[in-house]
Amino acid sequence: MTDSIMSKAATMEIPINSNGDTGTLAEDDSLEQAAKLQWSLDEKDLQQVMVSGPNLNETSIVSGGYGGTAEGIIPTSSIKGSNMHHSSSSSSMTAEEVTRGVAVEKLETMKKWGFNTYKCTKQMISERFGRGSRTVDLELEAQIEVLRDTKKKYECVLRLARALTNHFYNMVQTQHALGDTFADLSQKSPELRDEFGYNAETQKLLCKNGETLLGAINFFVSSINTLVKKTMEDTLMTIKMYENARLEFDAYRSDLEELSLGPRDAVAMARIDAAQQQYQVQKDKYERLRSDVIIKLKFLEENKVKVMHKQLLLFHNAISAYFAGNQQQLEQTLKQFNIKLKPPGADKPSWLEEQ
User: Fold this and answer.
1) β-bridge mates for residue 74, sequence order
2) End-to-end CA distance of the chain, in Å?
3) Mean pLDDT of all residues in 220-245
4) What's the whole-model pTM score?
């Protein structure tokens, strides 16, 4: 705008009056005021730029030469926003891919589980109705049945031993109370002091021997409980895994046999190869668990004989010594099996715990 004004002023005709001075025209005044106004605006813009500096968010990239149209001006804020939108969209696409991968993996797992469950259910129903064949190990299955029957009988022994412990504990408590009553009556009945005194001493002695016998019976019950609830139960869990593996092995074996009797085209051969691989995997699993069951049954039998030999000897010696009234032999039996009795009142809470 300044250049146009200056060029216009340069090409204007300047009239001269009679004294040789330039004339004051209205147009000259307007041109001079316009030039001063444009200069003051340019100076203010320059000072604002030097003070505040350029705003990067509002700077523009001009494409083309000077005096180009506004179509060539691209605000940098729009470029920045597009980059941010691109990065957010790429991250959202990555999250969607991860989610989709997890979903596909879960779907494949459920598909395999459903396929395997269908095969095993079909095999189990076929065996139950006598239509399908099953792998039988007569010797191993006989040992498993013996173990299950033995476990039931040992659980019966454990239940009866606990009942005996409870009844005998009540009897010992009754003897203790009876001895205290006899001792009290011995002090209050001078004419029967000796008789009450003898019975009080007898009941106290029986109570002491009864507590010793209770220690032996509790040790017997604890050992039987460990044998039944932990050792036998662990072996039966392995047997359950073996039986499931046997069912899966027979299911895949039957599937392979059915495919082998069908056509032999390219699709059928591919299915037969896949079934053969699955059959081999299930066979290896079945044989491995079968070997584990055989080993555990062997060690369980050895452990059972060793534990029961010790516990039955303890039970016999303790019961015989108690009812024979042989206190020395009863105490010797507990020392022989390293059984330590708890002092009276050890199971009772202290007065601080009762508060």
Assistant:
1) 61
2) 100
3) 95
4) 0.63
Phi-psi region of 345 (alpha: psi -120 to 50; beta: other; left: phi over 0): left
Cβ neighbours for 238, distance < 8 A, ≥ 6 positions apart: 289, 292, 293, 296
Q: What is the pLDDT of residue 55?
A: 46
Would you give the distance in Å from CA 306 to the centre of its chain?
A: 37
Residues 243-270 as b or e (16 or more Cβ within 10 Å = b): eebbbbbbbbbbbbeebeeeeeeeeeee
Cβ proximity of 161 and 216 under 8 Å: no
Question: 31 pLDDT band (50/70/90 cuts)?
Answer: very low
Per the CB < 8 A criterion, the answer to whether 296 and 232 are in contact is no
- Among 61-65, 219-223, 336-340, the least confident range: 61-65
Q: Is 142 helix (H, G, I), strand (E, B) or coil?
A: helix
pLDDT at residue 6 greater than cutoff 60: no
CA 233 to mean position of chain CA atoms: 23
**Distance between CA atoms of residues 172 and 205, nearest Å:** 11
Joined tokens for residue 142: 């006989």
The angle at the Cα of 100, spanning 95 to 103, to the nearest 5 degrees, equals 130
Structure tokens at 298: 């062997």
State how far Cα 293 lies from the chain centre: 27
Report helix, strand or coil for 23.
coil
